[in-house]
Structures are given as C-alpha cells and as structure tokens.
C-alpha cells in the first residue's frame, strides 16, 4: 500500500508539472508520456491496486482523465499481450463513453495511419472490434473512417488485410450494423466498389464472395437505407451486374421493385436522386483527398506537373489502380466545388486534372468507365436538384482539349451522343432530356457562351459533326463562323485569361508521358520540360504589381512592403525585411494577413527563384554571400528560435503560405540550411517546415522539393545530396526515388564527384536493409541511370553477398547493364557458397554466358575453393527427392537451384575449358561429387551428362583397386535400393522421356564427334533409353 501511495504521489507531483509543458509535445510524445504515467501506476502492483490507483488519478480532473485514457489506448496499440487487460481498465475508468479514445482513433486514421507499424494497425482493428462488441456510442463513425482507409484499385497485402478485417467486424456484428442507417449505406457503397478490384487469386476470390454476400444481404433486407446513396448506387451495381447474385438483384430492381421495398417505385427513382458528397468522398483515402484538395486549392496552373507525377507514382502506377480513376473523377465533379475567388485565380482548374486522368488512362475498360463517371450527373440532370458545378468539368475538358488534344474532345462528344440511346433504352427520353438540360444550363450560366464552336468544329470528323447536328440541332447554329467566335466566358467559370498560350500543355502530362517529339534533351542527356519555362519567362519582364494585395495589409505593414519594393540594394531590402519579420512576430499581429504578405513577398522576390542558386566558385565566402538574400532572413530568424516558441510556429506558417504560392521555397530552405553558418546543425528545421505545409509529410515534401531542384538546377541537386542523405536517412535510403532523380540528370563529372563523397565518408546512399530492393527498382531505369546507380553502389563498402539475390531477377536480354556490372564485381570476389549457389541458379540458355564466364574466372583464381562449394551444392541437391526439386523450381517465380541446372552449367564449363590447360575437373572434390550424383541419378541424367560423368569414371579407372571396389558398392547399392522400392521410371520426369526419344540418334555419333554432338544436345532436357 505504501508503494502504491508513493507512486500516486510521484504521479501527482511529477506529471502535474509536465502537464503545463504538454502544449509543446508532439502528438506521439504526448501519447508516450501518457503511457509512462499509466505504466508507473500499474507496474509491480496487483490488478486491484492498479485499478484503484488509476481511478484515484482519473478523479482529479479532466486532464488526468485524458492522460489515463490515452495511456491505456497507447498500451493497447503497442503491447498486444496487455491489450485485453488494458481495454478492461479503459472501460472501467472512462468517464465520457470512450469519447477521448474514439476521437484519437479518428485522428490517427485520418492523419497518421500510413505511418503506423503493422503491430499498431493490427491492434487498432482489434480495438475497434472490441468497441463495436461493447456497443460504444460513436463506434460506427470510427468504422466509416476505417473503411475510408481501404484504397480502391489497390490489391497489396496490407490493403486486402484491412478490407477483410473491417468486413469481418461488420459481418460478425451484423445486428449492431443494422441499427445505423448511414453505416449500412456507407458499407454497401464501399464494398460494392471494392468487389470490382478483388479477382484473380484464390484469396481475393474468397474475399470477393464474402463481400458479395454482405452487400446482397443488406441490399435485400435494407434497400431503403441503401436508397440514400442516390444515382451512384446504380453505377456501382452496373459494374458488378454479371455476378450471379447481383444479376438476380437487377431483375428485381427492373421488373419487381416492390419486392425490395414497398416505397421503391423503380430505377428512375434512384437515378433522379443526386449522390451525397459523403459517399463520393468515402472512396478516397485521407491522403488521396488531401493531395487532390491541395492541387485544386493551392497549386498554380502550369506548376502542377510534379504533384501529378507524385500522385501517379503513388496511386495510379499499377494495372489494378485504373479503377481508381472513376472514384477520383466522381470526387472532383461532386465534391470539389471551388469558390468564385479560386475560380477567378490562377489555381489549377478541375477540368485540367480530369483531362490529365483521362489522357493517362491505359485501359479501354477504365477509359469507358471514366467517361461515364464524368458524364454521370448529365444523364438525369435537373437544374432544381443538381448543381452546375457537377456538369461544368466535362464541358470545359472538351472545350480546352479541342486545340491540343482534339481526339479527347472527339471521344467525349461521341460518348455523350451514344450514351443517350445506350445507357438504358427504356429511359432514353429521360437521358436525352437530362443531357439537353445540362447543355442548356451550361449556356444559361455562361460556362460557355456558345456551343457551336465546340459541336461544329472543323477539327472533328464529318460523321461526328453530323451526329451532333442530328442530336443537338439547337446548339449547333452559330451567330458567326465557328473559327471566329470569341468565347465570352465569365472569369468565375473559365480560365481563358490564363490559357491563351498554354492550351498545348493544359494537362501537363500527355506530352511528357507519351510523346517523344515534345521531349528536349540537352547536351548532358538531361530531360528538360521546356513547356513551362515560357510561362515563367513571359512574366519576368513585366513590372511587379502588388497593388491588389497592399489594400488588404495593415498600414504599417503596407508601408514596409512598399519600402521593400522601392529598395535599391540588397542590404537596404534586408533591413526592411527584418522589420517586417519583427512586426509579424509582435503579439498583436493579425495572422490572417500572412497569406497576403506571402503573396506580396512572392511577387517582389521572383528574381530569387530564377537562375542558379549555387555560386560558380564554391568557397565559404561565396556561400555566405549567396544566402544574404532578403527572403532568406525568414530562414535566419527561424534558425535563431527555439522550436517550442510561438514565434517559431508563426514563421513556419508564413513559410507555409509562401510554399503554396512558390513551391521552390522548399529547396531554397534546404540550400540555406546547408550553406549558411548561422544554420549549422539545424537541418532538422526542414522537417518542422514540411509538417507545417499543406502536404504535412516529410517524405512527400522532401521528394517534391528535390524534384523541383532537379528540374531547375542540377549543380544544386548534387551539392545538396550529401546533406540530404545524411540528415534524412529514413526518407532517402528506404526507396530509390531520390536516387533515380539524381542519376536521371547528372553527367559523368557529377557522378565522379558523388563517388568521391561516398569514399570520403561524406555520403551514404545505400544501406544493407534496403540496397537490394533499390537495385531491383533500378532495373527499369535508363541505361546510363543504371550504370550510375551501380557505380555509386560499388563505391560503398557493402558486401556483395547482400545484393547477390538480385541475380534471380536478372534476364540476360532485359538487364545487360546490371549483369555486366555484377559480373565485373564478382570477378574481384572470392566465391562463397551462397555466391556460387546464386550463380548456378541462373537458367541455362545458349546466349546467356554469365554463369560460364564467372565460373571460368573462379576456376583460374580460386579453383580449390570453387570445387569445394560445387561439391557441397551437388551433394545437397542430389539428396533432395527429384519430385520436390521439380515442384520447387516450377512453383516459384524466381530461379531455384536444381541438380539438372548445376550439371548443365558444369557441362558448359567443361566445354569451355576443353582446349585449355586448366585442370579444374581433375580435382578430387569435383570428381567425388560427380561420382556421388552418378550413383543415384536416373538413366536420363546419366545419358544427358555422360561426358561429364565419364570424367569421374576415368578418374576411377586410373585409381587403385580398393577405390574401384568402393565404387562398385557405391554404384550398385543405391540402384538396387531404388529398384527395390520403386518401379522403373518412377522418378523420371515426363519431359525427360520425350527428350530421350528425340536425342537417341545423335547419341550414336558421340564417340567420333563428341564436341559437335554435345553442342547439339545442349538445348534438350535429357537423353537416354526408356528403361532403367
């Protein structure tokens, strides 16, 4: 009792003080602190004493209650063995119906789920299952947030595990699910969408069936709850219509709607109901949603490429991910409705993102579904119920694609015409009226002033124009010739004020992805995307106009900004900039002015972001001089502050606003932290900056900033590389993303410079736990990029055995770069058994000389060691049953070592050494191993490798008699045992028997012409007779 009271007292005094400092702790630090509080109270005492201590602490107040709840929650996530006990304690001490825990789960799911370790993810699912079992109020909201984390178009193991885990909870607790109408609808919408992705393997088929059963049961029993989904329920049901259970459901929907619900009148009722935003949003993960909202609210038109490239790599790079495009398009049309202020600005418009999604689609089925998703709200559009914002993107994609991508416009117009009779013939009249209402509303709202320039454009083929005139004669008459018509669109809806010279790169992807003609190469082989540079250059010569922003600033700040604009030299501008920073840090500063101030600074200091940042000659003086720019004063002030200071957060907010308006500020900050003496040892400030940006993620922010640096200044990229790899190893060394950026643009001199950095210990670009995966990734890179990657790897002191398994991925026709680099490195190594095993695992092919080359070299340098390793491998593989070997080699995608492979490679080596003085095959270990194999192998192998085995026989023939007698025993015993236990040919593969029939005639020539015969026989599997 005394120890328990002491620990309570310690908790009161010690943690009472730190509670005041909790404001400055990160969320993870706070959870760790809460966990330590709980652990200090419960360690070493009985369960009853622990409960008493926890309850006593909770009763002190709300902060203490929150600490205990969060501490127990953290223990549940991190200590699976204690989870059951901690959940019981949590249920006992919680005074708010678990509200604190539910809020924390939602926060983690929305912000941190991707960063959770597997154990924590597993425990989080377990905890939600327990909350649902207990019927905790609000658990349905957590389940819906969990479903949002299940990514569409993703069949990776972790995503499938999550989909199945949540489905199991909903299936097990079915009665609880039926109590929440919104949960029923959300679960049906989610799993109807996921069914499309789950096909192929047995595991996915099993999951798919569970999803089908789950959705069908809810649709049939609770159809009116599902009706709240609206018209997108029909779209999802169309995608699964061929599954037998849904085929029967469709028959009821069309022919017997009353069977589903007395209130359900038919499919038209569903199609005329607009789908709520919450359903469209639920099929994007929080990370996808954040990135899309960032692009549509913060990214300037013309600067979107790096964001689109990142999104493409992250979410749209696999064949399975094509189905995600429909979710993205429906989300953009139905959820992302920008304000008039954004619409009239130079922010990336919605139609440009949709155009990018359409032009990068690689599947015909996905393309058709994407077009349907784009036009879906048109089909039953009603101006009274539906929003113009839902139909605006489709018409603008067609309008803006006419010049740069007429094929896109044509295919969309064709789809619009053909969908009318084909969507659902009995409702053709309703669909025609819906499309007509959409077009009429577009003209009324002046999204486009006239449709004739679009519908009757000379760039369209005659048949399409005729079909458009037939379907929509009302919109095809033009007041003047189509080419001359000026589209008078309101600024709020159109981007023409930004588009006059930029139509040709409106999606900023198709040329880069698919057109070799539009890619320029400079003298160093660097790919440069010039289409954006004219955009920047056109505004360079214009005088800076910050008048619109000045009116929104306080008078004192306005005066300082004007002084900054008039400043004649850098020193004067720096003084004014410091005054501005000081004013921002004053207590009464209105933080809402940060965005306006950032706009002013971005306009005034555009020159900062042009040209090269790094001095031509790098010295301490030139580096210090290069970081003396006025804008860098914000960085300097940041470096001088403590991170728990409120002023620190304010300056980070200012930088975040600047970053949204000028993304290059990110790599300029990295340069400052690398080059300035005032920033020595402060590189970690960049992490705080990354977390303060809209991206909110260090890895994403770092990769995007390095990509921007790569596009602008390769010298600076190389200069930053050592410090970036050193300061952020977890972000740079775990994948090949940054390495690929670097090797894609460097020249041979810069490569040599990086190699020197590695060898001097200033740079580490690979580590043992991830180097193999990175080199495997590099197999898809360009030739020079691969050679650079291998040169940088070889500069490190990483044992070659670490990456030798890559041999199993290398094909002689597809990966010559990696094979040649590996071959040259292997020749410097003393062979280990693992190396020899991997080398021998390569499939035998007449044109693939890799294995023979390295074995020959090792024969010359390390003959005894190689002989021992080969003996060991021969004996090990010979002891395995033949059937198991066959299964093993055929079931795995990667090459597996089999006895036949070893013998084939040895036979190739024997042929290669025939005319040399090398006596590798006269060594005792090799001959002993060949004897061992010959004694137990079948006749097919004996015949196929007769020349090889004859070496062992010659060796024995020249030996004394006692060894011969031993040989007879060795040869006779296994054969007799084999024949006693198995019938003839029991161990022979069918392929061997087929080959023997084909090769028998050649065998007769072997005594006279061994070499040619051997070469002819090389391609076959085996030779010999049919009997043992």
TrEMBL record:
Domain Integrator complex subunit 3 N-terminal positions: 64-470
Keywords: Cytoplasm, Nucleus
Family annotation (InterPro entries): HEAT_Ints3_C (IPR056518), INTS3 (IPR045334), INTS3_N (IPR019333)
Gene Ontology cellular component list: cytoplasm; nucleus
Annotated Ints3-like C-terminal domain residues: 561-952
Region annotated Disordered, chain positions: 955-1028
Superkingdom of origin organism: Eukaryota
Keyword GTP-binding: no
Protein name in the entry: Integrator complex subunit 3
